[in-house]
Amino acid sequence: MHEQPVALVTGGNRGIGREIGRQLGAHGYHVLLATRDPAKGLEAARELGLAMTPLDVSDPDSIARLVHSLEGRKLGIDALVHNAGVAFKGFDATVARDTLAVNFFGVLHLTEALLPFLRPHARVVIVSSGVGDRSALAPDLRARFADGNLDRAELTVLMQAFVTAVAEGHHSADGWPSSAYGVSKIGATMLAQVLARELADDPRQLRFNALCPGWVKTDMGGPQASREVSEGADTAVWLATQPPDGPNGGFFRDRKPAAW
Known about the structure:
Layout: E1 6-10, H1 15-26, E2 30-35, H2 38-48, E3 51-54, H3 60-73, E4 77-82, H4 93-103, H5 105-114, E5 118-127, H6 139-146, H7 152-168, H8 180-198, E6 207-211, H9 229-240, E7 251-253, E8 256-257
Parallel strand pairs: 1-2, 1-4, 2-3, 4-5, 5-6, 6-7
Antiparallel strand pairs: 7-8
């Protein structure tokens, strides 16, 4: 068993993910930078003195290979940081499907696959966004997301319903905004709350939280963004290194609870 605490950071070869990995390494973690591009991931890992593991969060076979690798190395996980994300131009059925495949379903499926590997007091951190604002939903939909009994199965149905509604041309009539990225982040933030609620009695006392990193100077955010990468990574690292009695099921911005 690995003596250092272990952190796995998705989308770890660049931008916020790379910086989260760097900071967690400085905190003494054995960091696995999980990346869809192994060559770029290996380059980043070598530059930072960290480890790399190939992973495409939207590919079930890739997740299965990661699980097999962790089993072979007998690695548990103390911090799982879901940073991988996509934002496509335009809005249509393909954009909706591909955006949610990474930003919501990728987070969901990877978390479920890695639940057996989470050590006692492990922290699961979801890099979401303030763009995922529930006020963009019609009142009936908003009420469904605010339901304190919403579970993983129902949340999955809601997210798939959006993809289907876009494909069939009635998402606006159903109360959804025309933003696949925004809807994916509503789902991702909600997932942290749902997991915290569903696994509240797990003896490992796991913690699940989401955050908005702000507008960050990355390939996605662009050079005009207001925040440096180190600022964008700060709250994620803070949540990943919380003590056992740290927050659970929250949404944070600048280390403080935030409305969404």
